[in-house]
From TrEMBL:
Ranges where the 4'-phosphopantetheinyl transferase domain occurs: 4-98
Gene of this entry: acpS
InterPro entries: 4-PPantetheinyl_Trfase_dom (IPR008278), 4-PPantetheinyl_Trfase_dom_sf (IPR037143), ACPS (IPR002582), Ppantetheine-prot_Trfase_dom (IPR004568)
Protein name: Holo-[acyl-carrier-protein] synthase
Organism: Acetobacter nitrogenifigens DSM 23921 = NBRC 105050
Tagged with keyword Disulfide bond: no
Pfam assignment, any one: ACPS
E.C. number(s) listed in UniProt: 2.7.8.7
Protein origin, superkingdom: Bacteria
Binding locations of Mg(2+): 8, 59
One GO term of the biological process aspect: fatty acid biosynthetic process
Key words, A-Z: Cytoplasm, Fatty acid biosynthesis, Fatty acid metabolism, Lipid biosynthesis, Lipid metabolism, Magnesium, Metal-binding, Transferase
Chief location category: cytoplasm
């Protein structure tokens, strides 16, 4: 059963301008330590693309949760992680995790699917939240 679907298209130039203007303050407020470490291993447009894809993933997830950025759902409560296979997924904490729990029917577990891509100057992410029997 599909519980939520969200998609976001992000202009990489906007993320680049935010990084230039606000620096670490922006990066630490929006991205997890793990996300920052992954992006900082890259340089140039690949670095900006890594941040932009993760921004788009968080935006898409907030839409899939049905709240946008309200009710305790913030950029900092969603983190993009990679499974051992390399497949990206989302780890939710705080208000985002609480919203997911409230959205998930009893006796079911939620699974989040994430896909991300970028082609300068845009980054795109899509999130699907599925409920499966426990």
């Amino acid at each position: 059963m599909i519980l939520g679907l969200g998609m976001d298209l992000c202009d990489m130039r906007r993320i680049e301008r935010s990084i230039q203007r606000f620096g670490d303050r922006f990066l630490e407020r929006v991205f997890t330590e793990q996300e920052r470490a992954r992006a900082e291993r890259r340089s140039g447009q690949a670095r900006i693309g890594a941040y932009a894809k993760r921004w788009a993933a968080k935006e898409a997830c907030s839409k899939a949760l049905g709240t946008g950025f309200s009710n305790g759902v913030f950029h900092s409560t969603m983190g993009v992680r990679n499974l051992p296979s390399g497949q990206p997924t989302l780890a939710l904490t705080g208000g985002a995790a609480a919203r997911l729990a409230a959205l998930t029917p009893p006796d079911m577990v939620a699974r989040l699917f994430l896909t991300m891509t970028d082609d300068t100057p845009y980054a795109l992410a899509q999130v699907i939240i599925e409920a499966l029997p426990a």
